[in-house]
Amino acid sequence: xxxxxxxxxxxxxxxxxxxxxxxxxxxxxxxxxxxxxxxxxxxxxxxxxxxxxxxxxxxxxxxxxxxxxxxxxxxxxxxxxxxxxxxxxxxxxxxxxxxxxxxxxxxxxxxxxxxxxxxxxxxxxxxxxxxxxxxxxxxxxxxxxxxxxxxxxxxxxxxxxxxxxxxxxxxxxxxxxxxxxxxxxxxxxxxxxxxxxxxxxxxxxxxxxxxxxxxxxxxxxxxxxxxxxxxxxxxxxxxxxxxxxxxxxxxxxxxxxxxxxxxxxxxxxxxxxxxxxxxxxxxxxxxxxxxxxxxxxxxxxxxxxxxxxxxxxxxxxxxxxxxxxxxxxxxxxx
Length: 334
Hints:
Layout: H1 16-29, H2 31-41, H3 48-53, H4 72-78, H5 83-87, H6 91-101, H7 109-114, H8 119-123, E1 134-137, E2 145-153, E3 162-169, E4 172-177, H9 185-199, E5 204-208, H10 211-221, H11 233-248, E6 253-257, H12 274-290, H13 297-325
Parallel strand pairs: 2-5, 5-6
Antiparallel strand pairs: 1-4, 2-3, 3-4
Helix pairs in contact: 1-2, 1-13, 2-13, 6-13, 9-11
């Protein structure tokens, strides 16, 4: 099957978030720009080469300069006829011109012709450093109850999202950033439960405020198996192995739920015991503290901001040029 000529770079996925943000910004600036931005992203801008392949144009000769192979990249970025339009397209467009000239995303028509950031070309080289755990206070040994929690920041932007976890017991805690590329608060909550079960040297009750994790963990501890394709199957498998090893040593493992963020004046009442309220509060505190230790967040956020600007710049440049091109009746064929 032949791949579309303007889809190069899409093989490893695209940054959908930057596309949505740039289209929204264009529409807020001018409703007509929003229409043109969507048209560009969807591959609706045509130049002479595509018109000729469609049987609409007679040749691929540029109507405005001596270029004999006038594709969309030439029209938007190189044709001297539209240089003033490019210069007046805004600061983001000038950044996009630099990125295009330097081939920041390689030979990527998906960016140059459609304004879409390729995921691998933009973020593939940025690897997360190893997440380091911190243990403070007394060692975790012979404690019947531990409390766990997970926390996160930037929940609505998966590119920036970073999560952390903690396990708290009387006199100490274990905590750290959530390792790996997959960052979600649910996964952080589950990871905390897994680490609690793996590290507890004797029988233990793990107390979590994530009801979904608690229900599935109870099923696993009761002998249930997790499907290989289930979300976070790697962590559920770790929990199953740890619980089975503990059972073989005669060590019991239980998981129970407590409500989250209960006001202190309700501690000791019917909703939550005072002990559970204090344990849950400290688990929440140390999980949030561990967000500060998340690796590479500053570098990642800087790169994401840059890619957002480049996506918007490519659309601004494309709109500035193509809106003028379509005023020439010789190029209006669609």
